[in-house]
Amino acid sequence: MFEVFLAYINSKTKITAEEAEMIKAVSVIKKLRKRQYLLQEGDVWRYNAFVCKGFLRAYHVDDKGHEHIMNFAPENYWTGDRESLQNETPSPFNIDAIEETHVLLINKENFDDLCRKIPAFNDMINTILQRSFIASQRRIHAAISFSAEEKYQHFLNTFPNIVNRIPQHMIASYLGLSPETLSRVRTQAVKK
Amino acid sequence: MFEVFLAYINSKTKITAEEAEMIKAVSVIKKLRKRQYLLQEGDVWRYNAFVCKGFLRAYHVDDKGHEHIMNFAPENYWTGDRESLQNETPSPFNIDAIEETHVLLINKENFDDLCRKIPAFNDMINTILQRSFIASQRRIHAAISFSAEEKYQHFLNTFPNIVNRIPQHMIASYLGLSPETLSRVRTQAVKK
DNA sequence: CGATTCTTTGAAAACAGTCAATCTGTGTGG
DNA sequence: CCACACAGATTGACTGTTTTCAAAGAATCG
User: Cα separation of A93 and A39, whole Å?
Assistant: First the structure.
């Protein structure tokens, strides 16, 4: 499974075989069955996590027991809770597997070490952070500007490739809609 | 006005007098009157902008003419459109002054140069990016999870110091609510 | 003071959420 | 292999929230 991560890195930047070994030395593969947790609310998140295979979701459960999905993470995506990692505070989020999943974990100390010792790796991580930020800006825009139907259309355009791997009620949760509303939005859209 | 920026940098990291000079050499101060634009929709955004004094807002105007505020930027905040800056694409956003404002601008080439030549500056910028990302995650959470009233309360908690400098209809726009709804939410909250 | 911007209020309509029931497909254990 | 359980999707009726439109009050600024 490390090869998937290596291929990802090579698609973004160039590192030496030696550097690849350094990364491999601190990488841990964790396998998750469907519905298994990677992070549970209340725990401190201590890793950087790269999804090699499968599908994860990060979400919060509110007082009423409703789930609100913060992120989806299929292969070649990162997941975790940056705030908990940074401040070493208990996370309000859960992360679990939608499909059987293989994640690559690197703990904080080792990860920061890699960033310090491998400039190309550091640059790659910063570029990813930059991109993530831009993506989150787009999502904010959608969340405050769009109607239910527009949100769904925007989601389809943004993630055309993974839509069929996600149960609809989770898409609804990601968009801040009830599952029933999303269902109705879809049937109305078909009529047009 | 450069001193404000220098004080900001010194509060985050340590740089030499020489490095401070390098930064000063590429900094341009721009003064904006109330309602004056810093960026207009359709233009490419080419700077990093630090607010020394005053108050800016970044927003999008949709087909119906409704404004949706992406960000507020008072003193010691950054503003701009990262996506436009990164990809050199026309920005869908406008940025204008809510109050008379002094912004410090550094164009992309010079800024990247500073990041390369001054490691402490580069680290500072990455830390800020990290923080911005965390803040945007929180905002996404609020946008998809909260009711109108909760959104307003959350806003008050997050920005207690600047609330009274922003017209209410702009807060509504930032939260994805109509001005009328926010007005009603407020009067109801007073009753409790 | 007059003009403009901002906020509030009211009534109606549109929109989205809730609850409950039904329908569908999938997979598991007997 | 079938029956059953279970997760997911849909539908209907209802409730509640939010928007829209229009108008009237504040507040601010030149």
Answer: 7
Fold of B2-117: Jelly Rolls (2.60.120)
Instruction: Give the CA-to-C1' distance from A134 to D23 in angstroms.
Output: 42
Residue A72: partners with Cβ closer than 8 Å, 6 or more residues away: A55, A56, A57, A98, A159, A162, A166, A170, A174
Cα B124–Cα A86–Cα A23 angle in degrees, nearest 5: 90
Contact A70 B140 (CB under 8 A): yes
Task: For A2-114, give the CATH class.
Answer: mainly beta
pLDDT digits (tens, 9 = 90+) for A118-153: 999 999 999 999 999 999 999 999 999 999 999 999
A57, A72 contact by CB (below 8 A): yes
pTM for the whole structure? 0.95
- Check A133 against B136: CB less than 8 A apart: yes
Segments making up each domain of chain B, as ranges: 2-117
Beta carbons within 8 Å of A190's beta carbon, 6+ residues apart = none
- Confidence (pLDDT) at B190: 67
